[in-house]
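Record type: monomer structure entry
Structure origin: computed from sequence
Chain ID: A
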Amino acid sequence: MYQHILVPLDGSDNSKQALAEAIALAKTFGSSVTLLTVINEGSFYITAGNVPYNYSDELKRRAEEIEAEGKRVAEAAGINVNTVVLKGIPKNIIATFSDDADIDLIVIGKSGADALDRLLIGSTTAYVVRNAKVRVLVVNEDEHK
């Protein structure tokens, strides 16, 4: 039913729970999984006094750590997994990634690491649900931890 599952990861507990759900589905359907982390282009520069600091290298390093951790978890479960790190606006990239990647299902956490953006511009998850051309499974945060 689902041959290729996309899991957006941002390092939040909720995205890790989405990965766990995707792993369970992949085991059931024999699916491959692609992990996607998006470096938010709007977060590249901060100012320290009057000297701008390019934060993009740190964001890239963090994205690669998130992907590596997710890959370890999926491979330990015996899942065929690929990782992708892209730059851009996360909600746009996630919603359109499946257009050219032969994705059958997006498994995404209900809320992620960027609560400030969610308050200011709306939920990434809600945007993906409204705009993705494939099915989207939204995983709620586990309240019983």
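Annotation 1: The chain is about 45% helix and 30% strand.
Annotation 2: The CA atoms of residues 37 and 85 lie 5 Å apart.
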